[in-house]
Design a protein that fits this description.
Number of strands: 12
Structural class: alpha+beta
Strand order of the largest sheet: 3-2-4-5-1-6-12-11-10-9
Helix content: 10-25%
Largest sheet: 10 strands, mixed
CATH superfamily of the largest domain: Thiolase/Chalcone synthase
Distance between the termini: 12 Å
Number of helices: 4
């Protein structure tokens, strides 16, 4: 099991996306009185990033911006491992599950998970608002607990096409059709997010919904392609 000890979210800009993510991570740590140097792993989850850059990882840039254990390594030093996970809107669940596995199998006290998406370029179509969510995860303590996860491909449907404009030197995204599943359903114990919004917003909305609830809860994230992830929690 893994606990979300603290979280913070807000808008960020494409130009300063790393700075914005780091600011939210720092706020989450301050709210929970957690030292940044106690973070042993940084995981970034997001699909849309400036010019669709994949390397170096966004997680390593966030680690550097926060100066988390950025020093020369030796056999006795405590280091921080950072990497990205990309799985569409299901990324937050994948990152949380991965964080839980690392906490169980390593000496990491806390894991920082950042989910963020920004407009890739000024020229591309972008139906969303830039957004980021930073979560501090721990193996114990107070907070909502992640128990297990399930993943389903569903009835996959293409809804966008990406290309590169060699003249303008920018990525181009074209959207077509409707999301495969856009139904949002809320009950006392289950929250199904609207697939027309970003994964970080879907995760944020669940955290807000789960506030003051007790018992076992279920959160379903729906990707625009029709793939889904179901996370089981205990509040």
């Amino acid at each position: 099991m893994v606990v979300i000890a603290a979280w913070a979210d807000g808008p960020i800009t494409s130009k300063d996306n790393i700075k914005g993510c780091a600011k939210l991570a720092r706020k989450a740590c301050e709210d929970a009185n957690i030292s940044l140097q106690d973070i042993g792993i940084v995981i970034f989850s997001g699909v849309y990033r400036p010019n669709f850059r994949s390397e170096p990882s966004c997680a390593s840039h966030i680690q550097s911006k926060l100066d988390i254990r950025c020093h020369d390594l030796d056999l006795s030093s405590k280091h921080c491992f950072s990497f990205d996970i990309i799985d569409g809107s299901r990324g937050p669940h994948r990152a949380i599950q991965t964080a839980g596995n690392f906490i169980q199998q390593s000496d990491a006290k806390y894991v920082l998970v950042v989910c963020a998406d920004v407009k890739p370029s000024k020229k591309c179509e972008w139906p969303y608002q830039n957004h980021a969510l930073a979560m501090i995860l721990s193996g114990n303590g107070e907070g909502i607990r992640y128990l297990s996860g399930e993943y389903s491909g569903g009835k996959l449907m293409a809804h966008s096409k990406s290309s590169f404009d060699p003249k303008k030197k920018v990525p181009i995204i074209k959207y077509f059709g409707d999301p495969n599943c856009s139904l949002e359903v809320n009950s006392e114990t289950e929250f199904i997010s609207n697939s027309s919004i970003l994964g970080s917003v879907q995760m944020r909305d669940f955290l807000l919904w789960s506030n003051n609830k007790k018992g076992e809860l279920k959160h379903t994230i729906v990707d625009r392609s029709g793939s889904m992830s179901m996370a089981h929690w205990r509040a």
